[in-house]
Amino acid sequence: MTDIFQRLRENPGPLGQFADYAEGYFVFPKLEGPIGPRMRFQGREVIFWSANDYLGLCNHPEVLEADAKAAAEYGMFYPMGARAMSGETEQHQQLERELAEFVDKEAAYLLNFGYQGMVSTIDALVGRHDVIVYDSDSHACIVDGVRLHMGKSFTYKHNDIASLEKNLVRATKVAEEQGGGILVITEGVFGMRGMQGKIKEICDLKSKFNFRLLVDDAHGFGTLGKTGAGAGEEQGCQDQIDVYFSTFAKSMAGFGAFIAADADIIRILKYNLRSQVFAKSLTMPMVIGGLKRLELLRSRPEIKAKLWENVHKLQNGLKERGFNLGNSNTCVTPVMMEGSTVEATLLSRDLRENFGIFTSVVIYPVIPKGMILLRLIPTASHTDSEINETLAAFEAIHEKLVSGFYKKEEQKLLEEQNLQFKSS
Q1: Which family does it belong to (predicted)?
Q2: Spelled out in words, what is the top-level CATH class assigned to the domain 4-54+301-417?
Q3: Strand order in the sheet with 360-362
C-alpha cells in the first residue's frame, strides 16, 4: 500500500518538478503596480506582455468609475447567495439581455467563474448515453468537463477536420447504439498557439452528421468579428453555434463568464448548472462593471482597431526578425522555441533582466509535450515605443539563439546545480 503524500512527493507533476527552480520567477511571479503595458517585477520596470487585457479596459477611467460606484453602493459581495436562492437582480438580467443581443443569440446566462462554468456547462449538456467529440488542444476547463462525463468521448487531432469527421463516424455509431446524441466542442481561439478553431468547417459537417456544437470563445470575444462578437462572427457562422461561451477575464477585464443559446436551452441549463445552482451569484460590481465594459466594446470600435494595429506591428516585426509564430491568426502571439525547457527559461530571464521585457514561458501540460513557446499578448494599451523596444530585444536574443549562447549557459547551469528534469 502506498502513502498518498509520499507518492506526491516523489512525483510532483509536470509543472511541480520545476518548483525549486522556477517558483517566484517563472511560476507565481509577482507583478506590481496598475495592470498595463509597463509594470514592476522584482524592483524594476518591465514591458508587460502577459496580461489578457486585450482592449486595455483594466484601467480605463470609465470602467474604474463604474466599478468604484457599484462597490460603494452595493459592497463587494452583493447579492449574497446563489442566483436561484437569493442572488437574482435586475442588473444581472439586463447584462444577460445585452450579451445575448451582442452575440446574436436568444438568451444568455451569467456564470460566476469561467473555468467552473465551462466544466458545469458540459456536465449539464450531456448524459451518460451521449458522446463528446472535442479538439485535442482544448483548454483544461474543457478537458475537466469531459472528465466528468460518464459516457463515451473521442478527441480529434487539433483543427483537423478529416480527423473530426472520422471521429464523428465513430461517435454516431456509439450514439445510435446507446440512444444518445453527440456534442462537439472546440474553441473560437486556442489561447496558447493562437489559431482560430475551424468553426465554419465544423458547422458544414452538420449536413452529414447530427450533433450540437459548443464553442469556448474566451479569446475571440471582443477581439474578432466586425463588431467584436467573436470567432463565429469572424467566420460568418455565429448562427450555427448551438451554445456559445465566453469569459470576462480577457477582453472584458474582469471575472465571471456567460453562455448564450436558444432561450429554452438557457432556461434548462440555468436550472442544471451545478457550479451556479450551488455557488454564489456573480457580484454586483462585476455585473454593473460588465455593463460598462460591454457598452465600450459596442460604442468604441477604435479600441479594437488600435488592438489590431498593435498586433500587426508586433507579429510582423517578430517574423521579420526570424521568429516562428506558428499558425496564429489572432491576437495571441506565440514565439515557438526549439530546445529544452531550461534553455527557454534562460532566454526569458535574459529578456527580463537585460532588456526589461516580461513574457511567459509556456510548456506541457499547458501545451502538448515537446513544445515550448514564449507567449506575448498585445493589447490596445501598448505604444509604438513599447513595441519597438520589444522588437529590438528579440532581435538581440535572436543572435544569441543562432550562436548557441543559451545552450552553453544551460550546460553550465546543469553542471553547477545538478538540475535534472523530466522531458517536457
Answers
A1: Belongs to the class-II pyridoxal-phosphate-dependent aminotransferase family.
A2: alpha beta
A3: 333-337, 372-376, 360-362
Asked whether 156 and 163 are in contact (CB, 8 A), the reply is yes
Bridge partners for 132 per DSSP:
153, 183
- What are the pLDDT digits (tens) for 39-77? 999 999 999 999 999 999 999 999 999 999 999 999 999
Within 8 A by CB and 6+ apart from 385, the residues are: none
pLDDT confidence of residue 17: 84
- For the chain, the structural domain boundaries read 4-54+301-417, 61-299
Place of cell 437569493: 86
Whole-prediction pTM value? 0.93
Task: Note the pLDDT of residue 424.
Answer: 45
Burial 383-402 (b: 16+ CB within 10 A, else e): eeebbeebbebbeebeebbe
Q: Strands 243-247 and 257-261, how do they pair?
A: antiparallel
Q: Cell digits for 37?
A: 503595458
Query: Where does 61-299 sit in CATH, by number?
Result: 3.40.640.10
Helical spans, DSSP H, in 216-283? 231-235, 263-270, 274-277
Closest CA to 252 of 221, 208, 207, 206: 221
